[in-house]
Amino acid sequence: MAESDEQYDALGAIYERAKHIPTGLAERATLLSAVGDLLGRSVLDVACGTGFYARLFHDLGATRVVGVDSAGEMIGYARYVEGREPRGITYEQHDATELPVLGEFDVVTAVWLLGYADDEAALDAMLANLKANLAQGGRLVVLVPNPDADWDLLGQYGRYGYEITRTGPMNVKQPVEVHVLGDPPFDFDSFYWERGVFDAALTRAGLTDVTRQPVVTPDDERGEEFWGPLRKSPSFAVFTAVRGAR
Hints:
three-stranded antiparallel beta sheet; 8 helices
């Protein structure tokens, strides 16, 4: 195996591990519930990262999938996997604040994207670009840090695979560091915005049927004692909205 392949495999093993820890399983179940039936649909996945969800959308029946990310390293890994396991997914490198119109998609997703907007003006710009890629009647699905988070419960999140530490004062958005447990562990920065900001921005974008989706957790042997606190205060929230008539 070439050294670059080894590097890509290591990259994927680290970043995609977060999709398999308990909170990642709940994230995935909630997102897929919100996305709905993808059979025969077209999907644009913005902030696609390593292409984890783009591949899953294809495997769930989407006939056209396009992934977009601003990080060349992530797009490189996603293309590497596409070359190794062809699905017909295309990947492009764009910043969400300057995202061009790539088509009219039935579904546009943005997982963990909006929390990284610099301010509300940048948030509005991102949403305008996401909406511009939606077909009439198309659905936007965004996953963001939970604006109603109970910080006492988040302090116990080690049982779900990562730890969240506030790193600065709350000023519209709360900066945090997320420490993903495992071997090797890794950290990334995130931001928890005030309650109501995402809902209002989706409405300002001219989208309709803005809905916060219920949290879905795996139905496994760990049961309510384990999953109950996560449903009460998940690390994430999923909102959906629809593009109406032009």
